[in-house]
């Protein structure tokens, strides 16, 4: 349980949940592949998961009354719909849908490098193409306040997460893109987001599980 991509999504889901006031409903055991014994007893999750009535037992999971969800994107969209954070106009909805999938591709491009045994050989190539990918996101944001427009949507949470991962990977990667840096500052300054990131629930690292060649350790 708890693949690297799911774990990255969990960061974003918890952030969105904290922002919308739904934090207590999300349970996030550290996946056994993230923390070696004795830091975590995986039987805690194994014993619990079959009792929860989840269609596809996985982490994180979300329970809201009779609604029981797994898969980070499904949880995120559920929370976002309840709080009208999926875009309202047709243009906003189209931008949200397209960016959600573009972010997924972007996230996976880093994941594939991080989990590859030839990580050190692949890292320079990833860094070489990174500015081009960031430029596309910069152009897409333009002079908008948020990625869909003037209103915050759930893709801003996804975007913040994946940009932060890349900034940890290469601290200067956002320097050429003022609007992306401003977006990161603006998002991080949101009262509920800032409070969440200062809380004990927030884990900046690890990004990936222990099988990865990078991003697999606590800070």
UniProtKB/TrEMBL annotation:
It is found in: Cytoplasm. PROSITE patterns: GST_CTER, GST_NTER. InterPro entries: Glutathione-S-Trfase_C-like, Glutathione-S-Trfase_C_sf, Glutathione_S-Trfase, Glutathione_S-Trfase_N, GST_C, GST_mu, GST_superfamily, Thioredoxin-like_sf. Residues 1-87 form the GST N-terminal domain. GO terms for molecular function: glutathione transferase activity; identical protein binding. It holds the Pfam family GST_N. The keyword NAD does not apply. Its main location: cytoplasm. Residues 18-40 are annotated as: Disordered. It catalyses: RX + glutathione = an S-substituted glutathione + a halide anion + H(+). Transmembrane segments: none annotated. Keywords: Cytoplasm, Transferase. GO terms for cellular component: cytoplasm. This is Glutathione S-transferase.
